Amino acid sequence: MSLLQIDSSPLADASASRQLTAAIVEAIRSRRPEIKFVHRDLAANPPAHLDGTVLAGRFVEADKLTDAQKAEAALSEELLSEFEAAEIIVLGAPMYNFSIPSQLKAWIDRIAQAGRTFRYTENGPEGLAGGKTVIIASTRGGLYSEGPAAAMDHQEAYLKTVLGFLGITDVRFIRAERLNMGADLRTGAIKTALDAVESILPGKLAA
């Protein structure tokens, strides 16, 4: 069994999503100390966004790539291989302007590759990355799970959609909302999310 932790918040120790991903990973590793573990910090080492240099690695023959293109192709392969190898992915995803951090989107653009994590068929696209469990630590400054602002949620809805496109149907959320609506609400939301960690773990972790 293998575990991949992805963090995307640039707020370091002040990040609520990092606090939640750390708690989830600790709970998993305490049950399976032998589990192979990889941590990818997208804020500390953000992948470049898609451009001609990045995309060249997918569409240009290897012997025609420049050194810069080869480096980007190697990074894409590294990120994709980590994703493909992981059976459990713990994903830290704060809401930024109703969506996700751009560095997390850049990671998704690297792993969503036709022929590797999905393919096109005569009946439409087919995900090739099924069988994984993804646990998403979702953090929001306001209240978006219900009420008038629910229509503005392009964070959780997008993540569930793109993961489903890749064939992943076991997507679980731990959510902390209203983090910017007062200290008491923030403390309570994080505590509630942390208390929910045990209940969100997949059954495959049972002894």
How widely separated are the two ends? 13 Å
**What's the number of helices?**
7
CATH homology superfamily name: Flavodoxin domain
Q: Write the element-wise H/E pattern from the N-terminal end onward.
A: EHEHHEHEEEHEHH
Under CATH, the topology can be stated as Rossmann fold
Q: Return Rg in Å.
A: 18 Å
Strand tally is 7
How does this model look, in words?
The protein has 207 residues and is an alpha/beta fold. The chain has a single domain (2-205), classed as Flavodoxin domain (Rossmann fold), CATH 3.40.50. Helix content is 39%, strand content 20%. The chain contains seven helices and seven strands; from the N terminus they run βαβααβαβββαβαα. It has helices spanning 16-31, 52-59, 67-85, 102-111, 156-165, 183-195, 197-200, and strands at residues 2-7, 36-41, 88-94, 118-121, 124-127, 133-139, 170-176. The strands form two sheets. Strands 2-1-3-6-7 form a five-stranded parallel sheet. Strand 4 (118-121) and strand 5 (124-127) form a beta hairpin. Helix 2 crosses helix 3 (67-85). The radius of gyration is 18 Å and the shape is globular.
